[in-house]
Write a structure and sequence with these properties.
By secondary structure, the chain is of the alpha/beta class. Helices cover 49% and strands 21% of the residues. It is elongated, with a radius of gyration of 24 Å.
């Protein structure tokens, strides 16, 4: 039985998309590098932001402890399940939304990030339903899967009305939420479901291709460092511009005051 699914890492597909897009991107000029133009192409920006969110959530899930099992990037047919968490509190299909520096509002089934409505709530529910169906077929018995939507580093998360059918938590509360959730599975249940989830035969189009995840992480880390350097330079130039403007304004004010006093 093939078990290469265990080798999948958090954000794998998103990181691959970024690395692939950047490999075809034209190099920045020296001037562009100096002024801090981002190395990301328009095609890779969304995948890059998504990868960062998945990495944050993946790190949190991997540190839940030995009684929990976590798998990443599981094939669901036309879609991918970002994270599958199996532990004493049950089975969760986890989806990450990178909301860094954005306000998030949950108003029933409306999910708004930075003022823009998103479809993550129904997509999370669909992911959990599909996951439950595949696991139930493999187990030959029903498997309940809870959809869990994790909002990564929002400026503020406001829940006006809870969403129906899905739990929504901030990444800062994720570990505490799962650790304190009511126990619904025994250790034997967790082991049995984990064993099935790790089989490629459980999922559609599981594939057997191996990916050098260490090289993927290295390539993505290089891109991430370039993005951070570009951002730091833009901030530096902005600060320098503000300082120059501040100096010019005060210089003009000082000149005017001197002129008035002299007259």
């Amino acid at each position: 039985m093939h078990r290469s699914l265990r080798e999948h890492v958090a954000g794998q597909t998103a990181m691959c998309a970024v690395v692939s897009a950047q490999a075809d991107a034209p190099p920045r000029s020296t001037f562009q590098r100096i002024i801090g133009v981002s190395p990301l192409t328009p095609e890779s920006r969304r995948s890059y932001r998504g990868a960062l969110g998945e990495l944050v959530v993946g790190d949190i899930l991997e540190n839940l402890g030995p009684v929990w099992d976590v798998l990443h990037d599981l094939p669901l047919g036309a879609r991918l399940l970002e994270h599958l968490v199996i532990g004493p509190a049950g089975v969760c299909a986890v989806r990450a939304v990178n909301a860094t520096d954005a306000d998030v509002v949950v108003d029933g089934d409306q999910f708004i990030v930075g003022g823009d409505p998103r479809s993550d709530i129904p997509e999370s529910i669909e992911d959990a339903s599909t996951t439950a169906r595949f696991l139930a077929t493999a187990a030959q018995s029903p498997v309940r899967v809870q959809p869990l939507l994790v909002v990564v580093d929002p400026t503020k998360l406001t829940v006006k009305r809870p969403a129906s059918g899905v739990r929504i938590v901030a990444s800062s509360d994720l570990h505490r939420f799962l650790a304190r959730a009511a126990r619904t599975l025994t250790g034997e249940d967790v082991a049995r479901i984990s064993d099935l989830a790790d089989l490629q035969s459980t999922w559609p189009s599981g594939g057997s291709d191996r990916l050098d995840t260490q090289k993927l992480h290295r390539d993505f880390t290089v891109i991430r460092a370039d993005v951070r350097t570009a951002l730091a330079r833009r901030i530096g130039w902005s600060a320098a511009g503000i300082g120059l403007l501040y100096g010019l304004v005060w210089g003009v004010i000082a000149t005017l005051v001197g002129t008035i006093m002299a007259s």
